[in-house]
Amino acid sequence: MISFNYETDFELQDEARYEEWISEVIESEDKTEGEINYIFCDDEYLLQKNIEFLDHDTLTDIISFDYTMGNLISGDIFISVERVKDNAADFNVSFDDELRRVMAHGVLHYCGYKDKLDEDSTVMRSKEEEKMKLFHVEQ
Q1: Residues comprising the binding site?
Q2: Does the pTM exceed 0.85?
Q3: Strand locations in 7-71, DSSP E?
Q4: Rounded CA gap, 98 and 93, in Å?
Q5: CATH topology (fold) of 2-132
Q6: Which residue pairs, CB below 8 angstroms and at least 24 apart, start in 98-101?
């Protein structure tokens, strides 16, 4: 089950499409969907989580808490909408594309992909691109 929660005034348009897409991402990795909670928030909210749980006093776009057991993918994914907006501008991509990249990123961590080392980061970026293509944008 995938759920979307909001700690800011942002809300996803067409949650059902996003839920279907994340399910497809998980299935494409031969994993089983458990409980995944997306929590959309602002910088301040996520900074407090970063300090409280990870002892990092820095802004970030995503923090994920992985509760995956075997192939059953579960966890809480906190996303700062403010960071996503700023990063979209910095990377010269649309907000929607950057948001989908970050949403896929969290789930990919649960599927076993890492991004701390350069070679792992390259694989993660490739997987993000692959999974973003599964989101069918209506023309």
Answers
A1: 105, 109, 115
A2: yes
A3: 32-41, 62-66
A4: 7
A5: Collagenase (Catalytic Domain) (3.40.390)
A6: 100/21, 100/132, 100/135, 101/128, 101/132
Token pair for 130: 């692959």
Picking from 74, 85, 80, 71, the residue whose alpha carbon sits closest to that of residue 107 is 74
Residue 116 makes CB contacts below 8 A (sequence gap 6+) with none
Cβ atoms of residues 46 and 11 within 8 Å: no
In order of 51, 98, 121, the CA distances from 118 in angstroms are 25, 20, 5
Q: Is the dihedral of CA 105, 107, 108, 114 positive or negative?
A: positive
Instruction: Please list the pLDDT of the chain residue by residue as tens digits (139 residues).
Output: 999 999 999 999 999 999 999 999 999 999 999 999 999 999 999 999 999 998 989 889 999 999 999 999 999 999 999 999 999 999 999 999 999 999 999 999 999 999 888 999 999 999 999 999 999 765 4
Enumerate the domain spans of the chain: 2-132
Binding residues for Zn(2+): 105, 109, 115
